[in-house]
Design brief:
By secondary structure, the chain is of the alpha+beta class. The protein has helices at 24-31, 41-55, 80-87, 105-113, 215-222, 231-250, 256-270, 275-283, 294-304; strands at residues 7-13, 16-22, 62-67, 70-76, 96-98, 127-132, 141-143, 149-155, 161-165, 171-175, 178-184, 195-199, 202-205. The chain is 34% helix and 24% strand.
Length: 305
């Protein structure tokens, strides 16, 4: 069972609150069934729909009122931090208690996986971290060991990932990303004790406006150098280098001296700053020597104009 599949339940009876954890089938079958046939079925269905809204972030808690002095508040768990807060009573008003006996057995197993006792305190004094082999891919959602989720936007290299935080859409370059398994020290890891997640050496935070990010520079800075196995690989590398400078030259808002410096760099390196001329020279193999003689480039550049 996954942590996100647990339902956190707060039962309020005459102002006294009781917390417990249930899997969805237990919540529907046992908790809602306590109020018998006298409760309107439509209200129960509406409450379940509202409960799923907590999973989508549309609402914090679903509410089910049984009587004037009895109600149920429930929410799918969204992460470790929220679960610890629930076990500590951070979501309660007034007198409360946690009833371990009313919890689903699978939920108690999840607590053990995340090294928590029913009061939210650590269950084991020491945890072991083991590096696991994992190939990261675009679109994958990863959770770090702090309980935060990140979607992979690009794998710049095997260990450098472009990530988007699910919580606030922050764009981050994770450098040195590794995949780990965590389990109690001196125990054999299994599905009931191991939690997997990522850690990285350093994070470069780029904000949450993706339109302001220069992906060519990210690839150059954090990407893995491509293997030059043919002349076509070389030409693609040359093409990327040209446009890296050309984008600077064309970028509005930069000081004129910066754009002029980029144009000079294009002229000195490629013999031209004009994309059409560059493309013809590239196709004719003028850069296949990494790079060709400058004077020869300028001569042909003049002819192509």
């Amino acid at each position: 069972m996954k942590l996100e599949d647990m339902v956190m339940v707060v039962e309020n009876h005459k102002g006294t609150e009781t917390n417990f954890l249930l899997e969805l089938t237990d919540y529907m079958g046992e908790i809602l069934g306590l109020w018998g046939d006298g409760y309107v079925v439509e209200n129960i269905a509406g409450s379940i729909d509202e409960l799923y809204g907590t999973k989508k972030g549309e609402t914090d808690w679903s509410e089910l009122y049984i009587a004037a002095n009895k109600s149920i508040h429930a929410s799918f768990c969204t992460g470790e931090a929220q679960l610890r807060g629930f076990l500590a009573g951070n979501f309660n008003d007034g007198e409360w208690s946690f009833d371990e006996g009313r919890c689903s057995r699978d939920c108690l197993a999840v607590l053990r996986m995340y090294n928590m006792k029913p009061d939210g305190q650590p269950l084991f004094p020491y945890l072991h971290y083991e590096r696991l082999e994992h190939s990261f891919h675009v679109g994958e959602v990863l959770r770090n060991m702090n309980g935060n989720d990140y979607r992979v936007l690009a794998a710049l290299s095997p260990q450098n990932l472009l990530l988007m935080a699910q919580k606030d859409s922050q764009i981050i370059v994770g450098r040195g990303v590794q995949f780990y398994g965590r389990y109690p020290k001196d125990e054999r890891p299994d599905s009931d004790s191991m939690v997997t997640g990522i850690e990285w050496d350093h994070g470069v935070y780029l904000g949450n406006d993706i339109t302001k990010i220069d992906f060519d520079i990210l690839k150059q800075e954090y990407g893995e150098p491509g293997r030059m196995e043919s002349v076509y690989d070389l030409r693609e590398k040359v093409r990327g280098d040209f446009w890296l400078q050309k984008n600077v030259e064309m970028k509005e808002g930069l000081p004129g001296r910066v754009r002029n410096a980029a144009r000079d760099c294009l002229e000195n390196t490629f013999g031209t700053h004009e994309p059409e001329v560059f493309a013809k020279m590239l196709d004719r193999g003028m850069y296949d020597g990494m790079y060709g003689p400058r004077e020869e480039q300028k001569k042909i550049s003049g002819q192509l104009r």
